[in-house]
Write a structure and sequence with these properties.
The protein has helices at about 5-60, 60-70, 75-105, 110, 115-125, 135-140, 140-165, 170-180, 185-190, 205-240, 240-260, 260-275, 280-305, 310-315, 325-330, 335-350, 355-405, 405-415, 415-435, 440-465, 465-480. Helices cover about 85% and strands about 0% of the residues. The protein has about 475 residues and is mainly alpha-helical. It has 21 helices and no strands. The chain has one domain (about 5-415).
């Protein structure tokens, strides 16, 4: 089995991440205008509810499976046994969650109102059993993941433009969304035979997985509180339209977060492998590079989209969604906060079997999110939910930094915080000039402002000889030679 370099894996994952950003940029403006806030709110509500049942169905397997398989990936027999054990555990939990979901649709009136949409999403949830993305991530098979992902997205894009024509087509759109998310899963199950066998070999040892799986499940459950509970609470307190406004801001935030955390996603299996082999020096060198990546890219992205939130909403969703602007501005700090907590929690604590500390940090954040949502949504609606999310992410990061206080200082010493701040200030001045004196179509405004803002930012870092940027540039130039 060939294991590619981190650089190759990052490039492949970046292509997939870019497609995850590009495709919504193509589809979201169209869907927002066709389905309108109410239709989008229904999709967001059903999706959020389904996420809870999917959470129980998958337990903590999506993250635990990566670590468990990465540690034994050099032994085909042991890897096969590990995968079989995880799949059997997942089958039991999936069946239980599936039955609970079905009866919930029948018994809860607000669920039954959208029973067709719920049943479609329920079918997509069941397909998750065959996904096995944790296996391919552990084996760092990013070429396969990327190609499969792009193929399914392309088909889904065509179906959306062909079938979704009016507001009542939100059920069709829900079906296309489920297809986009699960169509590749059966191919994954078949392709997995290249790396493992499904023949039983020896006695299964379920118990050794259960403790860690349950910890990861608790982590996922807590995360879902402040990633989906706000949408559900908004729906019950304020209605579908308010959910639609909030979901627009959340979608943009999620796209940007995916971009910033893309390198960390690639490194989890590699870092788990380093931790297993006790290669501490290269482990912490890699972590420092990720911290640099997140700060150098996360800070300007956060600042730019706070400054141009109104223009972004106008372009992606239209004037009907202007109520999304303030929630989007409030949410933007989470792009950086999630990027940093992804390092401290997923990249540092998890590979070292310290997932309980990650869980405790998330529980603090989830508790704060619930209380703040309860207090703020009735009065401030989507803006209140956005503020609660920011505070939750801040608490999660703070608690994780307390656990890692012995290494956080050394890690951040590698980051040129002063140079990044100075470069962002210069870029912000350039962005302000565009916002104040440049009057053009919103697309042209965003294109010109982005080129100027990030151009000034990049030039400033190069001019100040920021170490990470220069090393990245030199690496790219040496690759081309």
């Amino acid at each position: 089995m060939k294991i590619h370099s981190v650089k190759y894996n990052f490039i492949m994952n970046f292509i997939m991440t870019a497609s995850s950003i590009l495709f919504p940029l193509i589809t979201f403006p169209y869907v927002s205008r066709v389905l309108l806030p109410a239709g989008n709110g229904k999709i967001a509500f059903v999706s959020s509810v389904t996420a809870y049942f999917t959470l129980f169905a998958s337990l903590g397997i999506p993250t635990y499976g990566i670590r468990a398989c990465a540690k034994v990936r050099d032994d085909r027999e042991q890897l096969s046994k590990t995968v079989q054990e995880i799949l059997i555990i997942n089958s039991v939990t999936m069946l239980a969650a599936f039955m609970a979901f079905f009866f919930s649709i029948l018994m809860i009136p607000k669920f039954y109102e959208e029973k067709e949409l719920f049943l479609i999403y329920m079918a997509g949830m069941a397909m998750n059993l065959f996904a096995m993305n944790w296996l391919f991530n552990a084996l760092e098979q990013y070429s396969y993941i990327t190609i499969c992902n792009l193929a399914v997205k392309t088909v889904s894009l065509a179906l959306m433009f062909l079938l979704v024509k009016e507001a009542d087509d939100y059920i069709l759109y829900g079906g296309i969304t489920v297809f986009a998310g699960s169509a590749s899963y059966l191919f994954n199950f078949i392709y997995a035979r290249r790396f493992i066998t499904f023949r039983k070999n020896g006695v299964y040892e379920f118990r050794k997985h259960l403790k860690a799986i349950l910890v990861f499940f608790a982590m996922s459950a807590a995360i879902n509180v402040y990633t989906n509970l706000d949408v559900v609470m908004l729906r019950f307190m304020k209605g579908n339209s308010e959910v639609g406004y909030y979901n627009t801001a959340i979608k943009i935030k999620s796209l940007l977060t995916t971009l910033i955390t893309s390198l960390g996603t690639v490194l989890l299996p590699r870092l788990s492998y380093y931790a297993k082999k006790e290669q501490k020096e290269i482990f912490y060198q890699t972590i420092s590079k990720v911290a640099n990546f997140v700060m150098v890219f996360g800070v300007p992205v956060m600042c730019y989209f706070m400054m141009f939130a109104k223009e972004s909403i106008l372009l992606l969703a239209g004037r009907e969604y202007m109520a999304s602007v303030i929630p989007m501005v409030i949410l933007m700090p989470t792009v950086l906060l999630i990027g940093l907590s992804n390092i401290t929690g997923i990249q540092v604590l998890t590979p070292q079997d310290e997932e309980k500390k990650v869980l405790y940090s998330i529980l603090w954040g989830a508790g704060a999110d619930f209380v703040l949502n309860l207090a703020l949504i009735p009065r401030y609606a989507s803006s209140g939910a956005a503020f609660a999310t920011v505070m939750a992410e801040w608490i999660v990061l703070t608690v994780q930094c307390i656990y890692l206080r012995s290494i956080v200082g050394n890690m951040m010493k590698q980051v040129s915080v002063g140079k990044i701040a100075a470069a962002v200030l210069l870029a912000g001045i350039a962005g302000f000039c565009i916002k104040r004196y440049f009057d053009a179509h919103v697309f042209i405004t965003l294109a010109v402002s982005a080129c100027l803002f990030f151009g000034v930012y990049g030039a400033a870092l190069l001019g100040m000889k920021e170490k990470f940027v220069w090393e990245t540039l030199e690496s790219m130039l040496s690759t081309r030679r």
